[in-house]
Amino acid sequence: MQNAVQPLPPSQKETAAALSALPLPALPLNDAYHLDENISVAEHLALIPLDDAATLRVKGKARQLIQTVRDNRRRFGGIDRFLNEFGLSTREGIALMCLAEALLRIPDSETADKMIRDKIGGAEWDKHLGKADSLFVNASTWALMLTGKVIADVEEEKSSSVSAIAGKLVSRMGEPVVRQAMLHAMKIMGQQFVMGRTIGEALIRAEDAEKTGSRHSYDMLGEGARTKADAERYFNAYDSAIHAIGKAAAGRGCIESPGISVKLSAIHPRYEYAKRETCVPELTEKLLQLAQKCAQYDIGLTVDAEEAHRLEISLEIIGAVLRHPSLKNWKGFGLAIQAYQKRCTRVIDILAALCAETGQRMMVRLVKGAYWDSEVKYAQVNGLPGYPVFTRKSATDVSYIANAAKLLARRDVFYPMFATHNAYTVAAIMEIAGADQTGFEFQRLHGMGEPLYHQIVGRGEGKYPCRVYAPVGSHQDLLPYLVRRLLENGANTNFVNRLQNDAVPIDEMLQDPAAHLRAQASKPHPKIALPADVFGAERQNSKGIEFANAAVSDKMLADIAAHAAKTWTATSIIGGDKRKGAAKDCFDPADNARKIGSVIFASKEDCALALHGTHEAFTAWNATPVDARADALVRMADLMEENMAELMALCVREAGKTLPDAIAEIREAVDFCRYYAAEGRKHFTPTALPGPTGESNTLQMEGRGVFLCISPWNFPLAIFIGQISAALMAGNTVIAKPAEQTCLIAARAVELLHQAGIPKNALCFLPASGEMTGQYLVPD
């Protein structure tokens, strides 16, 4: 075995780039955001191979596991006890989360003190002290309690309490002690969440656990590199860890040896679909280097799962690396897949085909998923058609068991690794595996699940190997991991949170997720509206595009390119008539040699005609029923979505916007139309007022006259439409004057407004110069 591994030669860099361009096996990956959750749930329910008798055996085994945890919990502690003591439904749990986020991010002491006063002052830390047997819980409580009592006044009648005495002691030292106390608490937490500050420290700490049958996969804390320097630092940390792990493995093979877990987001600052032409070859090269070093030591490497919009490029990179000839005889390459993703079962099919193509066997870690909150929010904020994840926890549990069965059935090409802290899920996997206990393992997080897995870890009949996912790093690097784990496992409905809580009956924890899900009339969660419906019945959310979804974005990009090749013309539109005159050429701000159209700027006569026409049209438009005005704006919103490709091309060509900025611009304009339509129906509908018998009193809001709407160049559609739609909804007529730099976008928007039903006399378009506007329109 070579102790030193050489860097990837330049010739192999070219090979890595070429490999990354190869397609994945010809198996389409379902569109995450259009995949119907009802259909996906039905498919997963059909995959569960447990009949009624098997389900009873699963419940019996799970009951035994849970009861043993509760009977022997004094022997264990760590994060399980902490989560039970400080649930995220308590003020203390929320305060701890906020402070964990604050103190490690805030560079100056003054701001940190303000945050501490805000988040900690009102918490009742006393009530937790001494309740838990875990040293971790009590040590954290002491630090938090001292913090709270430095801020709060100590009442005389409570002077005999432990917290009051501690508060008086610390108050003499001043508020800097608060920060030190909290940093101490974070270090205590770090010792429980993190295996070691360095890989050497972690390997030493793991020795005793390995003697009892545990294995480890080390994660060098760090994710979401923002700079090349960050990425290089994380890459070097992985590289050094592989050497240390490889030496400690001493040739035991990739299954028996400790391994390493790698996050692609940690080793590239622009790991995103928009940068795939550069990030995919570069990440392929970096991952290949790490994989080759692991192969030389014959230890495992698992690529951690990240957000759904990165899945497609992750599979490109993984496929490219696995195909490399230097890894042909190595069986330690692996990746994590997430059961909460509706595409999980399809990913397994793709990986099985990839293994068949390469003749390789992969290690696959099945997790439930740690980004659920952000995946849901990402889809809502970006106006996507649906969610890439299941919206019910029971659906995720069903998916996990169904996909575990798929993996166990394909142990010829997979080495499954089941990462779960749920006793029912563990029992289900043991039942599905049956007498064949070989060819797979369980996994748990360091500091969690120990009392559960203590019962089954070992060698021999009825015992299973378990690998501990062990983060390595200082407490300063803990924050992203800590927040994710607390959110993932700290919810009241989570199994970890309930496992050691005697108030939760064991029968409640033995619910068969498949039976529960079959009993639900609505398979998606009824309280989690689709992204289009997040604003309720009042208005619809604007549609967005997921550029990482090639099935949708490829067609959209082709449409944008076709429109971008055109030229446009803008001229004054008064009473529906387009005015004539001398045209001025417009050029792309990103390429001054590229002509994109021409503008005929408004004349003095055009200004006079527009003023006269809109004054004349005001009475009729103001008398138009509120619903008719609102309906026109809603139609305008729909038309902008239907013409999104052209409007995006205009935003890119004329305003120099990027594609993400262009779609955000259009979505904001759409939201303005729907928002003002909804507000207009609410406030401008005549309202009957109480009064004496025989009298009729009505409150009715009306327009004021002609509005001149002048918009800036940096939001050529959103602010332009926002001003116009508000004025029109209120019953006013409008003269729309765009920025001189972005007349083409504005002209197209006015054409769509007329098409939507805004009377042509009620809305005039004047691409006027600043001088012309100031001289003939502003004084009116």
Describe it for me?
- With 780 residues, the protein is an alpha/beta fold.
- Helix 27 (718-729) links the parallel strand 16 (706-710) and strand 17.
- The radius of gyration is 31 Å and the shape is elongated.
- Residues 1-12 and 142-174 have low confidence and may be disordered.
Main beta-sheet strand count, sense and barrel state: 8 strands, parallel, barrel
Enumerate the spans where pLDDT stays under 50 for 5 or more consecutive residues. Answer: 1-12, 142-174
State the shape.
Answer: elongated
- Helical region count? 29
Radius of gyration: 31 Å
Strand % is 5-15%
Overall pLDDT level: 84
Structural class: alpha/beta
- Percent helix, as a range, is 40-55%
Q: Biggest sheet: strands side by side, in what order? A: 1-2-3-4-5-6-7-8
Span between termini: 87 Å
Count of extended strands: 18
Compact summary:
By secondary structure, the chain is of the alpha/beta class.
Would you spell out the secondary-structure blueprint of this structure?
Elements: H1 10-20, H2 37-47, H3 52-71, H4 78-85, H5 91-103, H6 109-120, H7 135-151, H8 162-171, H9 176-193, H10 199-211, E1 214-220, H11 228-249, E2 259-262, H12 276-297, E3 301-303, H13 311-322, E4 333-338, H14 344-358, E5 362-367, H15 372-381, H16 393-409, E6 414-419, H17 423-433, E7 441-445, H18 450-453, E8 466-472, H19 479-489, H20 495-499, H21 513-518, H22 550-564, E9 568-571, E10 573-574, E11 577-578, E12 584-588, E13 591-600, H23 604-623, H24 626-642, H25 644-655, H26 659-684, E14 687-689, E15 697-699, E16 706-710, H27 718-729, E17 733-737, H28 743-756, E18 763-765, H29 770-776
